[in-house]
Amino acid sequence: MDPVLTEIMKNRFTAMAEEAATVAYRTAHTTFVKQTQDFQVALAALSGEFFAYPTMTGVTSGSGQSIQGFLDAFDLADLKAGDVLISNDPFRTGGLVTHQMDIHLVRPVFLDGDLICFAWSFVHASDIGGAVPGSISPDLTEAFQEGIRLRPMKLVAAGALNRDVVNILRDNSRIGDAVWGDLEALMAAMRLLDERAVALCRRVGQVTFQQCVENVIAYAEHKAREAIRSLRDGTYTFTDYLESDDPDAAIHIHCRMTIAGDEAEIDYTGSSPQVHAALNFGTGSRTHPFLCLALTNYIQTVEPSIPINGGILRPIKAYAPLGTLMNADFPAAMGNRWVAVMRTYDALMGCLNQAVPGGIAACGAGQAGIISASWVDPLTGRNRVAVVEPFSGGSGGRVRADGVDATDTMIGYLKSTPIEHVEIETPLIVRRHELVPSTIGHGRYRGGASVSIELECRAPEAIITVRGLDRFRLQPWGAYGGEPGCNGQAVLRRGSITREIGKIKVLTMEKGDVLLMVSPSGGGFGNPRMRDPDLVLRDVRDELISADEAATVYGVVIADDEVDRERTTALRGNVPETPQWEIASGPERERYESIWPVDTSVALAEAAMRIPQGIRRNVLATARRELMNSEKPITAEQAAQSMRRNAQRIAPTASDLESDPRPTR
Fold first, then answer.
1. How high is the pLDDT of residue 664?
2. What pLDDT score does 197 carry?
């Protein structure tokens, strides 16, 4: 490998991808692309691995993805110059598509008849039909409710557009023209990638081009292995939860990470089976970036010069059993899957905090609430749909820095929609959008603050859907002595009546109604009494905490807008050492785990995975109801016995009730 040439080509590849992403961004039609940037464009090698991926524009969470599962549906010998392949099918693309709203396009790139690479793009379509405007509601239960689903097929064949596919897309979306406009923008970006790749290949030669592609990917692998080698060898486990509609139940994600030298293995065996709601996602049989995002983010942090491509995943093996929440089987609903991806991230972050001496970070808000609105156009009588705003919350405090206010690590690439644009595009008035005082997770390094948004409806009626809300009961955890963050909240004011409405699924607002949403905040990292008094003073001046909180929580006395250092020293006394790895999870999680210890939840999930999918959900629900009658903590053995007993009662003739809980990969 020529290090100079590899570095030059790494930067050249990235510049090509950035240029194409900018074209898509500037020519797109929907708010979710031209404002929020939920799209991406990249180049993939013949192996399916990305080798050129933007870092300044669009979604960054899929940089280690492979398009091979998509390509498996085609005979590559039948592909021609000018083809464009399309699919939004999570069940036929090997984990590339993770919910139906993401439409993926692939364009094979040829030089003098030889296939040299692939241009790829995706866009989150703001509506593809289905049961609700925007196609996503957390309580949808199967793929058929979530809009049209296209298996891998040709949208363009040798330059000729398939009008039938276009018409199907446009006719089944509430905003068909806008969605098609986004796809045209993506195809323009891929044509540019085609031109740039062919020109570069002609300049350096096909053999050199292909060698440079492999070298840049191999360089990323080398840097990733160096980062993994810095972790402590061993096996680490952690469990985190998604909230269920049942206050006495939760959906758990159990992560086991093993570090051995320069390789990592991540296993989610023992996590909850897929659910009868839109929280699931698919990851296929290969290592999927959604299963290891916390680790790849760590790698990119400690190796900032690493190329962003598929090589990052080569030293990582990540696995979720087929049929679990994070590798769901047909016909699972997946529209609201990003909140489950974020909780998967949190579970792996719990493992990484143990593998890195001194830890990394506390838990962030853990939600990506995407607010969408639908209303009737008074002139045409047709439904209009628009994305209003991504709505997150503060990130967790870090080992050397505070969390970030109002945005979490997992969705830092999503941009806020300007208020002026919201008020032009929708019948909503943004009355306020601001940080919320006294919401931070306290710590030596505090968590990021909550954010609130207040929306007033000016149409006779508007339907609001918000996907991705969570942490309304179970707080974001603090780490290494830090305190947990605050919970989220949603309130509707109609006239003189104000009521809490909890997590929003589908909300009908009338003219004059006001919706107030408050996000969770990030947990704190480290003992609050070890916080620099000047940072406490800054938080008081910024009105994030009060002077009373400064004294009672941080032991810092503020007088006349300055730190009284003598009284602060006396009040703090001997600050205890920061404890070793532990979390502060808040009373609701503590109460839940006092009834359902982690080992019991894992045993229940593993027993459920031995049961045929057709009866799994019913058996699991029956067993949980039966076990809840216990007045003591439920044991793993009780959970397994209850599952076996209820499975035999519900389906006594089933022949495979004791099948391997780890299905074939």
1. 38
2. 98
With residue 27 as reference, give the H or E element that holds it: helix 3-27
Domain presence at residue 557: no
**What confidence tens digit (pLDDT) does each residue in 123-174 have?**
999 999 999 988 998 889 999 999 999 999 999 999 999 999 999 999 999 9
- Beta pairing partners, 49: 66
Provide the angle, in degrees to the nearest 10, between the axes of the packed helices 547-554 and 533-541.
Answer: 150
Per the structure, the count of domains in the chain is 2
Report the amino acid identity of residue 395: S
Q: Which domain holds residue 155?
A: 3-223
Output the furthest CA–CA distance in the chain (Å, rounded): 79
If DSSP codes are grouped into helix, strand and coil, which group holds residue 498?
Answer: strand
Burial of 381 (0-12, 13-18, 19+ CB in 10 A): exposed
Strand pairing class (514-518; 497-500) = unpaired
Please report whether residue 34 resides in a domain. Answer: yes
Return d(Cα 523, Cα 45) in angstroms, integer. Answer: 40
Unique residue bearing structure tokens 């074939």: 664
Lowest mean pLDDT among 195-199, 410-414, 557-561, 623-627: 410-414
**How far is CA 432 from each of CA 143, 451, 517, rounded to the nearest angstrom?**
36, 10, 10
The reply to whether 591 falls in a domain is no
